[in-house]
UniProtKB/TrEMBL annotation:
Name of the protein described by the UniProt record: Heme ABC transporter ATP-binding protein
Keyword Nucleus: no
Keywords: ATP-binding, Nucleotide-binding, Translocase, Transport
Organism field: Kiloniella antarctica
Pfam families hit by this protein: ABC_tran
Length: 263
């Protein structure tokens, strides 16, 4: 059971957005995507979610070509949190979160759906916003409501009542530091408890090191490196990728290292 990108290339006009990307998203693993602005990270997420089709290569979802899935079948299998700024809904925050359960309405009892909605709202710290209109929420609040919607989609009582793939496009962007951690902790918890294959585009090296099992580094549309976090988060590779000096400070009495950056 994997979401697999096979030799993906994307060309739009004269621009090569992605070049020969091979990547696999596995159950119970949290994959972080790192890379500079404009590297192609969101494009890759759109390819994996089926929002965009590659120019070359293919995506397979549980061994079936992604392009064979109809939208409703796809919604049962994968949950996507796009960058929140792209979205506007004339509904309450609770109604937006409830959209995450739409694909399973005929498969679950209203009670089970309601439980998933409440749990996802609690994990994303948006219960106090439930009755407010989504359109008037702040950027960070909208972001957390979107996370709750995607999480609700992954929270069923049985395998066929939840999406097994969770794709998050910069879930921490615009959030205060406590909520950045809360959001990543919620995604991590979901990955552990429901075996959800999770992908998140991140910009913070320390958060990537703390929450992700695996890291893929994208630069100029190409996959620079992919593998276990400890192996891939090499200061030399990171310095070259981000064109700045990345150093690692080893904390005494701790297995954790802190990444610091300077130009
Ligand atoms: N529809 C499109 N037509 C033409 N170029 C595009 C299109 N979508 C994206 N691009 C270009 O492709 C490149 C990669 O964009 P993408 O959004 O995937 O980058 P990213 O790595 O997610 O960047 P960021 O960290 O800034 O969000 C950018 O140069 C962008 O301008």
């Amino acid at each position: 059971m994997t979401l697999k990108a096979n030799s993906i290339s994307v060309r739009i006009g004269q621009s090569l957005l992605l070049q020969d990307i091979n990547l696999e998203l596995k159950p119970g693993r949290f994959l972080g995507i790192l890379g500079p602005n404009g590297a192609g990270k969101s494009t890759l997420l759109k390819i994996l979610s089926g929002e965009m089709s590659p120019t070359h290569g293919s995506v397979e979802l549980d061994q079936i070509p992604l392009k064979r899935f109809k939208e409703d079948a796809l919604a049962k299998r994968r949950a996507v949190m796009p960058q929140a700024s792209q979205l506007a809904f004339p509904f309450s925050a609770r109604a937006v979160v409830a959209m995450g359960r739409w694909p399973y309405e005929s498969l679950c009892t209203p009670f089970a759906n309601q439980k998933a909605i409440e749990k996802a709202m609690a994990l994303s710290d948006v219960r106090h916003l439930a009755e407010r209109s989504y359109s008037v929420l702040s950027g960070g609040e909208k972001q957390r409501v979107q996370l709750a919607r995607a999480l609700a989609q992954t929270m069923g009582r049985a395998e066929d009542q939840e999406a097994k793939y969770l794709l998050l496009d910069e879930p921490t962007a615009g959030l205060d530091i406590a909520h950045q951690h809360a959001v990543l902790k919620a995604a991590r918890q979901q990955c552990n408890k429901h075996n959800t294959a999770t992908l998140a585009i991140l910009h913070d090296l320390n958060q990537a090191a703390l929450y992700c099992d695996d890291i893929a580094i994208i630069s100029n549309g190409s996959l620079v490196n992919v593998g276990p976090t400890k192996v891939v988060m090499d200061t030399e590779i990171l310095s070259k990728t981000f064109n700045c000096k990345v150093t690692k400070i080893h904390e005494p009495h701790s297995t954790l290292a802190i990444f610091t950056t300077s130009l």
